[in-house]
Specification:
- The complex is a heterodimer of chains A (271) and B (551).
- Chain A has 271 residues and is mostly helical.
- Chain A is built from ten helices and no strands.
- In chain A, helix 1 packs across helix 10 (237-264) and helix 6 (161-168) runs antiparallel to helix 7 (173-184).
- The longest helix of chain A is centred in the first third of the chain and has 37 residues, at 60-96.
- By secondary structure, chain B is α/β, with parallel strands linked by helices.
- Chain B is 34% helix and 26% strand.
- Chain B is built from 19 helices and 22 strands.
- In chain B, strands 6-7-8-3-9-10 form a six-stranded mixed sheet, sandwiched between helices. A six-stranded mixed sheet of chain B has the order 16-17-18-13-19-20, with helices on both faces.
- In chain B, strand 7 (177-181), helix 7 (189-206) and strand 8 (209-214) form a beta-alpha-beta unit.
- The chains are: A mainly alpha (271), B alpha/beta (551).
- Chain A binds chain B through residues 160-162, 164-171, 179-180, 183-184, and chain B through 333, 335, 358, 361-362, 364-366, 368-370, 373-379, 387-388, 390-391, 434, 437.
Amino acid sequence: MNLGRTNKYLGGLLIAFFLLSALLGWLWTPYDPLALDLRARLAPPGAGHWLGTDEYGRDVMSRLMAAARTSVTISALTVGFAVTFGIVLGSVAGYARGWVDRLVMLFTDTLLAFPSILLALALLSILGANIWGVILALGLAYMPTVTRVVRGAVMSLREQEFIEASRLMGHPVGYTLRAHVIPNCLAPVIVIATSMFGSVLLTESALSFLGLGVPPPAPTWGNMLAGARPYMAQAHWLGIFPGLCIALTLLGINLFGDYVRDRFDPRMKGL
Amino acid sequence: MSEESELLRVEGLELGLAGRPEAGIVKGASFLIRPGEMVGLVGESGSGKTMLGRAIIGLQPGAIERRGGAILYRDRELSQLSAREMRRLRGQEISIVFQEPMTSLNPSMTIGDQLDEPLRSHSDMAAPERRARILEMMTRVGIPAPENRLKDYPHEFSGGMRQRIMLASAMLLRPKLLIADEPTTALDALVQREVLELMVEMTRENGTALILISHDLPMVARYCERVMVMRQGELVEQGPTADILTAPAHEYTRKLLAAMPERGPLRSFDDQEVPLLEVRDLCVDYVSRGGLLSRSRRKRALDGVSLSVRRGEVVAVVGASGSGKTTLGRAIAHLIAPSGGEILFRGTPVTPRGKGWMDFRLNCQMIFQDPYGSLDPRFTIRRALSEALYHRQDIAPAEKDARIRRAITEVGLEEIHLDRLPHEMSGGQRQRVAIARAIISEPDFVIADEAVSALDVTVRAQVLDLLADLQQRHGFSCLFISHDLGVVEQLADRVIVMRDGGIVEEGPRNRIFDAPESDYTRALLSAIPTLKRTVTGVELSWRFDAPEAGA
């Protein structure tokens, strides 16, 4: 139990650290993350450049900070997209049932049949690699999970007597959904959204690594990692630091996600 | 000598929550069970009766610890027995039957194997001998053609049958003591009686002592020679059944007896007037959608039911579970779509979203059974009540607020409760809120679906009185759906008896209760006592048959 509490704080601390870096990276970075400095190519970490420079002499720390901003924004917007549309589709399907449900679930199951990265790849090759394309592609890839969970929650909720009481009061369906159904199925959605954040971050990095994410020269952790590959032997710091950023953020989110799950899952209460 | 005169002696038993010294669950319970005796243990939920019963065979949950006192079975303290002796004791000497027949049998094991288990581990009988014993026992508990059913799984039996099987497995080794914890609470009144009578007969045949744990005092009184009354962990009173009923010593026992429903006054209604609600040939089908290879199936839940409710009248619908009474209520409220028939409100047919729909919607409210499920857990009581006035544009906001405050005091709560959330209130309080929500818009028609069934006996009596009082004051008509005929007798003006989706019998309350025409109604009625209040207590008698032991 004590370990659980430590985990929660460690997770929160890691998340806070990267959020602050992202925020700072938006306002100020030690160097211009895009500025080339060919005299200082592949400089190792030291006094001038704390985390070293890359093959064009760009400051790695500045690029990591700028990338944090891009990654956090993309992840947040993607999760927001997936959750919003997932809730709408899931609650309509679960409440209406019948052919509406079957149609929505056919769509959802089709999306779910593709691995999310493959789906994002396919969509990105159509939409073209830019930040909105990435958000739309990832959002569509992650939406089915939310839809399924919400639909399940709504289906059991709609049999509850307070939902029937709302119908008896003459409330229209939209009101009942908004006031009674959706707020009562948010707990599992919050839990999924937390863990989804980490997984989106990873997928986005993977896309960038494959060259299909945010187009260069804008830095992301994934494309920095990709750029580091040819220099692995001479300049290990190029790969290590973005890799660490991804790993630590994910760790933070997962630790914090456990806490969120314990907090919102009623079955965990009182344990 | 003690071998003859006492089987189990419990002295000053203390049980409490581990780690919380102040939280006592059983406080100083002392009693004695003699061989072959039938003793009732009566108490409301949370009184500690189940924990007391479980502690006798050392089955209390891990969070509950024994703090003091003695449990002596044939002069031997249970806590000093070895694990092996304890196992032997549990199997052969003391048996237990739990409330829930769905979960107390292993769903993935055949009945034959489950019945074989105790015999295999506690006796050295050979397989054919065990089989013969099991078949004999299954025949005894009334399972027809038992040799064909040994390979069946629990879900292939009805609730009553499962409880018979539980009883069979508990009695297979002819224990000296049987503890039955609410053995029939989950069953219908009729099945309940059959199973109980079987249990009483079998314990009598084998000379087994029985501790019958229940919340239902009349039921316990009917079968037990002695009764113990438990409240908040204390045994407040114990003694011969007849004494406890006619001359209760403790105030709580008197309260329990006073809570037993009594017939209300007779009221008369104008037959000429157009009924407020009329139902003609109402049918409801449940359709299970077929898969790729199976055809969709229909099950008729309601088969051509007609009834009418006059202004200000309370009409009760009674019947066993599966009789269609709940379906009837929900179909009238338009929560489910009927597949045939007509519903007329104030003489005009009701059609969803047609003319007069909103009038019907706002004037037909419902009180549900489950006080935990009928309120949105995220809404404060104030918000829940104001929501019920949402569509009443004719009422000014200030007036709505006054209405809410009036409604909450009318159901016996206070204004401070308005800002509470449902989980901060007790079951009885929630049910009061549910009633307030149903009547706040002053509807002409209220459907109460098992509105008091989930409540404890004393709370049930209060809520029932409240409902009767509000009905008198506001004059709404009420369709009162219940399986509990005692409650119906107190409240109803007219009674409709349902079975298998149709109406068996219908008539004024006094006629139905005093001179039922159908055998089914007669059987239903035989499950509830008629009571005569005496100066200090009550006398119980049962209709249509001679009373059993006790009263």
